[in-house]
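Practice problem: predict the structure.
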Amino acid sequence: RFSFAGVAAIAVVAVLAFMLGRQGTQPGMELPIDSRIPQTASLEQLDTQRLLTSSVSGHLEQINIVLTEFANSDESRSNEAERATDMLVANRLYRQAAAARGDHTLATFLGGLEPLLIEMAYEAHQDSPATRNRMQQEIRDSLLFRVRAVSQRLQNSTIST
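Answer:
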């Protein structure tokens, strides 16, 4: 039921969560190093904040596309609910990763996207014109701008670091 983008987002978050957990180990504990294998980068050198920022930026670009298509279509599409469900699952994982990382501003923003994604995933496919029009108006009025602004801020911070 999940699309490729949703599965890819979940995989990235799982890797990010693994690496965040590895950084939380005891400071004196060293991983054994095999001298025969060349080491390109250790886990300590990996910038997990930059990885999270880049991943969330890509996620927001996907949400921007989904919301733009939803806001500009007259009728519901067959895969609309499935895409919204994938975005919802990925959004929750990114929100949890941002909160674990201490980025409460980003976690709050991602948490604010969830009610609309839930509504898109579970109510929009019921073909209620009033609900669809209300959701499209909400997306056009403020949500698209906020998603684009946060995405641009994340892209700029990734480039500058």
